[in-house]
Structure formats: C-alpha cells, structure tokens
UniProtKB/TrEMBL annotation:
This is Biopolymer transport protein ExbD. The keyword Transcription regulation does not apply. Belongs to the ExbD/TolR family. The keyword Transport applies. It is found in: Cell membrane. GO terms for molecular function: transmembrane transporter activity. One of its GO terms (cellular component) is plasma membrane. It comes from Litoreibacter albidus.
Amino acid sequence: MRRLAKAKPQREPTIALINIVFLMLVFFMVAGTLAQPLDKTLNLVDTRDLEGRAPPDTLVIHADGRLSYQGADQPDAAAYLSSLSAEDRTVIRIVPDRALPATDMIRIARDLRGAGAGKIMIVTERGLE
C-alpha cells in the first residue's frame, strides 16, 4: 500500500501585501514630514496694504477704464499699439485695476486685438490666503 503524500498547506499571499502596504504608509508619512513646520511664533509679512507697482512694459487699465503706459495716459488701444514696434505687439501685457468691471476689460482686450495685438496676457497678483 502506498502512502499518499500530505499536501503542503498553501501560504496566503495577503501577508506580503500587508507588508508592502505598511511600508508604503511609512514612506509617505516620512516623505510628508521632511519639510520643517514653521515656528508657531513666526508672523509672516503682510503685503495686502502695500501699493503695487506695474511692470514697466505693461499697459495699465485703471478702474475708470483709463489706459496708461509708463505713466503716460493713452487715449485708446489703437494709440497705444501705434507707439509699439511690430515685435512688441506680439505679446501685450495688461494690468487691470481690481475694481475694473470685467465688461470694460473685455472691451479693451477686443480693441487691442482689433488694432493688431498678438497675444494678450493679464498680469495679476498672486496671494497666499
């Protein structure tokens, strides 16, 4: 009579999976805390009340719709573009006042495009809130 060999019990692969998940958890916990937290007594600089100054190569659109370039008032978009070289007309940067209605900004952007402006970029303020 032949003896039947006992079948080896199969190991569950879930132990290996649990180990991998645990190692990933530890990795992300360590990676997420590499940056030192700010000191609790540190007060960051507040720039909300500082008067901003537009970059020198931008068209400023004031709250009342008035245009100015390098401190000089511009009668309209066409007059502003006529003072620029063909190369400078390819990218126009505008700085709108925060209180400028969106409809006025769109109208001025259309006027710039109609007068021959290429790409129009709006320069804005980036804040940490």
